[in-house]
């Protein structure tokens, strides 16, 4: 996910595109019983948040659904 996003940045800068990551409600505390799945989805949420803050300067939106 990180590597592909980094590779896409130069193209997205030119086209003012967006990155959309797929998350889940399981990233929230006490929602999912699967510990590892919850951790993975929480990481996606944090990655999305950090990428959004860094890439907005380049005109690239980053969201999760």
From TrEMBL:
Keyword hit for Amino-acid biosynthesis: no
Organism expressing this protein natively: Pristionchus mayeri
InterPro entries listed in its UniProt record: NAD(P)-bd_dom_sf, Sc_DH/Rdtase_CS, SDR_fam
Gene3D superfamilies named among the record's database cross-references: NAD(P)-binding Rossmann-like Domain (3.40.50.720)
Keyword ATP-binding: no
GO MF annotation list: oxidoreductase activity
Signal peptide as annotated in the record: none
Pfam families: adh_short_C2
Keyword terms of this UniProt record: Oxidoreductase
Name assigned to this protein: Dehydrogenase
